[in-house]
TrEMBL record:
It comes from Herbiconiux daphne. Residues 7-228 form the AB hydrolase-1 domain. This is Alpha/beta hydrolase. It comes from the Bacteria. GO terms for molecular function: hydrolase activity. Keywords: Hydrolase.
């Protein structure tokens, strides 16, 4: 029998591992082996090293799932990791070598994220970034119940500004060699939907799911749609 595939989920900027809770509940209910690994949000290279450690600990084939900036991290982490068999991008960046998350955000008009970001100086010339907690629900999670969105705002993990401005290190992006799947909302205010469509098409995604009127927090507001895509990817890879 083929070896079972473990799903490893990687959160993005201004979020944390609990953003995957509903997706994990759904996957576990289907008998899928899945877990969320912490993402420090310090730099693409160091964050990818953390994911590689999680992959190595699995000791078997892995399907990597990344949200937002986590897409850049899984793209890098999968480079040279022979146990990674596929990539799922959830409202996520899928960069080419040398591209940055900020460049991809600005590729098409529509993002209002920059207007809501607040800086926290780190003392070394760089900054931690957070989304203004009062503005977070409307910017990041407009289709999530308000009380839940406010908790997400209060628990968001800051991202170091250099992580978003760091050129993608790997010479060859993992999505050019591995099968990929994309899911995102049509009301994403962080990454313009046209940018998400562009990256999915460029990667040759086997399937792209657009969730009508869903926000950047599509995995929170529409966990079944995200879990369905992941389950479909696992079925394809089986």
């Amino acid at each position: 029998m083929p070896e079972s595939i473990t799903v490893v989920l990687v959160h993005g900027a201004f979020a944390e591992s609990s953003s995957w809770n509903a997706v994990l509940t759904n996957l576990h209910g289907r008998g899928v082996d899945a877990f969320a690994t912490p993402n420090p949000l310090r730099s693409v290279a160091t964050d990818a090293d953390n994911v590689r450690s999680a992959i190595a600990a699995v000791g078997g084939p892995v399907l990597l799932v990344g949200h937002s900036y986590g897409g850049a991290v899984i793209t890098e982490a999968a480079s040279g990791a022979n146990s990674v068999v596929g990539l799922v991008y959830v409202a996520a960046f899928a960069p080419q070598h040398g591209e940055t998350s900020l460049q991809l955000t600005a590729l098409f008009p529509g993002s209002t994220l920059g207007e809501t970001v607040r800086r926290i100086p780190l003392g070394d010339g760089t900054n931690d970034l957070i989304v203004d907690r009062e503005l977070y629900p409307g910017q990041f999670a407009a289709d999530v119940p308000p009380a839940e969105a406010r908790i997400s705002a209060a628990t968001q993990r800051p991202v170091r500004d250099e992580a978003l401005a760091e050129p993608q290190p790997a010479k060859t992006p993992a999505w050019s060699a591995l099968p990929s799947w994309f899911v995102f909302g049509t009301a994403d205010k962080n990454i313009p939907v046209e940018a998400l469509r562009f990256m999915a098409q460029r990667a040759g995604a086997l399937k792209t799911v657009e969730v009508p009127d869903a926000s950047h927090s599509v995995m929170v507001s529409n966990p079944v749609a995200v879990a369905d895509l992941i389950a479909g990817a696992l079925a394809y890879l089986a």
